[in-house]
Amino acid sequence: AQSVTQPDIHITVSEGASLELRCNYSYGATPYLFWYVQSPGQGLQLLLKYFSGDTLVQGIKGFEAEFKRSQSSFNLRKPSVHWSDAAEYFCAVAVNTGFQKLVFGTGTRLLVSP
Amino acid sequence: DTEVTQTPKHLVMGMTNKKSLKCEQHMGHRAMYWYKQKAKKPPELMFVYSYEKLSINESVPSRFSPECPNSSLLNLHLHALQPEDSALYLCASSLRVGDEQYFGPGTRLTVT
Questions:
Q1: CA atoms within a 13 Å half-sphere pointing along the CA-CB vector of A90
Q2: Rounded Cα gap, residues A112 and B8, in angstroms
Q3: pLDDT of A46-91, one tens digit each?
Q4: From CA B70, how far away is CA B59, in angstroms rounded?
Q5: A30 to chain B nearest CA, in Å?
């Protein structure tokens, strides 16, 4: 079955340090992959997406992600974290089960320390 | 206009009440979605509308009744809810099903 795994429930990063959030997917076909961010009590904001082509994709707010087919991974990175980046991050894959829908990972909560 | 709006922001209702959640987008998107999100969990898909027709119902109880009056508007009618239905209800839209989805801010629902 199609699934998305985010192995880290919580991550704490110092402000100004680099960040990498892990995402692994299980899907037979070429996946459509997404990263969303959610601040407390808010909706989800799309950070970036991968459909095809260049495996390094740039997103908003200085985020980027790299698609690695051999590792079934789509990790999110940012070179320098800001306190405002503290939020919940969800990786998602669009799967076709007769009709396309998003399957979300369980999320990673990012905490930023001063 | 690149946003999805949802009203109300907060809703408290009793188990015998009838209420509705509203979602609107003016991006020309033809797919719209309802999700339910419990605390510390990812969103769970409830319904998908494509070109104003219900395409997916993820086995949602009949006390939740979606409606898509036109391509910009999506409603979720609520009746005889249970306390466990308390959650954040998110609406999303995309150009077509399968494209990237844009989410509204959600309605925080509390059932007493």
A1: 23
A2: 31
A3: 999 998 888 999 999 999 999 999 999 999 999 999 999 999 999 9
A4: 23
A5: 13
